[in-house]
UniProtKB/TrEMBL annotation:
Identification of the protein by name: Uncharacterized protein
InterPro entries per record: SEC31-like (IPR040251), WD40/YVTN_repeat-like_dom_sf (IPR015943), WD40_repeat_CS (IPR019775), WD40_repeat_dom_sf (IPR036322), WD40_rpt (IPR001680)
GO biological process: COPII-coated vesicle cargo loading; endoplasmic reticulum organization; protein transport
Alphabetically ordered keywords of this record: Endoplasmic reticulum, ER-Golgi transport, Protein transport, Repeat, Transport, WD repeat
Classification lineage: Eukaryota, Metazoa, Ecdysozoa, Arthropoda, Hexapoda
Organism expressing this protein natively: Zophobas morio
SUPFAM superfamilies: WD40 repeat-like
Gene Ontology molecular-function annotations: structural molecule activity
Length: 290
């Protein structure tokens, strides 16, 4: 049953689980235009539980978005009841907004930094440390931020000159981070040593761009990586205990894969969306799609 439909070309992020209300943030997608060539850039907050399609609040932003994340920083200590929203912009900026202030119509931008050169492709909050944020961009850089201090605490060494398209924190270990990008390789980082500990790829993968990755919510040793090249529109399941080749390669799309979403409550459900306008739900543990 459809609950709500919003006519937007946006990157979206659900509110953090610690937030008292289920909300949806939508940031205007970069490198997309409508028929009127509108260049407006906005960050909006919606309530999916109402029939009203108007946002609860919105702010104009300096640039459009490549990625969006909603974290729980500030919820536990009472500084904010709705956490914090991070966005990666087209001009290389990392910005943080207070969703409470957006809803109240107040000035909401609390931090902006342009450490990245070129678009920021991926941002994600550390699930164990609310103040921890990782970001990856077109210039091969991966930063780890302390949002409480408003500064990067770590710049990871570049293993390649290829752009970073996706980063993902391990769901069970606070210092393990994954990244993938233009060289088709998935890198697993140990932040304690600021180095890669695994390099996942088949020989053929290096010809294709990796678009996104996700960790298994129940097993800290398993992850999936997807590719956006129409010649190899695949999703590969990897197990770090035996990482010479993928466990499975899932093929169901005619064009490249755009995004992955692994259900945090049921590891048998992996949603895959593609440029071919299809969304497929797989059981990645059996390689069968629903």
């Amino acid at each position: 049953m459809k609950i709500k439909e919003l006519n937007r070309t946006s990157h979206v992020a659900w509110s953090a689980p610690e937030v008292d209300t289920v909300l949806l943030a939508a940031g205007t997608s970069a490198q997309q235009v409508d028929l009127s060539f509108n260049t407006k850039a906005e960050l909006e907050i919606f309530d999916p539980n109402t029939r009203d399609n108007e946002p609860l609040g919105k702010v104009e932003t300096s640039e459009r978005f490549h990625c969006l994340a909603w974290g729980s920083f500030g919820v536990s200590n009472g500084n904010s009841t709705k956490g914090i929203i991070a966005g990666g912009l087209d001009n290389g900026a990392i910005c943080l907004w207070d969703p409470n202030r957006i809803i109240n119509g107040d000035s909401a931008l609390i931090f902006e930094s342009k450490k990245h050169v070129g678009p920021v492709r991926s941002v994600q909050f550390n699930p164990f440390q609310a103040h921890g944020l990782a970001s990856g961009g077109r210039n091969c850089d991966i930063f780890v931020w302390n949002v409480e201090k408003g500064e990067p605490r770590q710049l990871l060494p570049k293993p390649t000159q290829a752009e970073v398209n996706s980063i993902a924190w391990n769901k069970h270990c606070s210092y393990i981070l994954g990244s993938c990008g233009g060289d088709g390789v998935t890198y697993i980082w140990d932040l304690r040593a600021s180095k890669t500990i695994f390099r996942l790829n088949e020989a053929s993968n290096e010809r294709y761009r990796a678009s996104c990755m996700e960790w298994n919510p129940e097993s800290y040793m398993k992850l999936v990586t997807a590719f956006e090249d129409p010649r190899f529109s695949a999703v590969q399941l990897w197990d770090l205990r035996s990482c010479h080749t993928p466990v499975y390669t899932l093929m169901s799309h005619q064009k490249g894969v755009l995004s992955l979403a692994w259900c945090p409550k049921d590891s048998d459900l992996l949603m895959v969306s593609s440029i071919d306008c299809r969304t497929v739900v797989w059981n990645p543990n059996t390689s069968v799609h629903c």
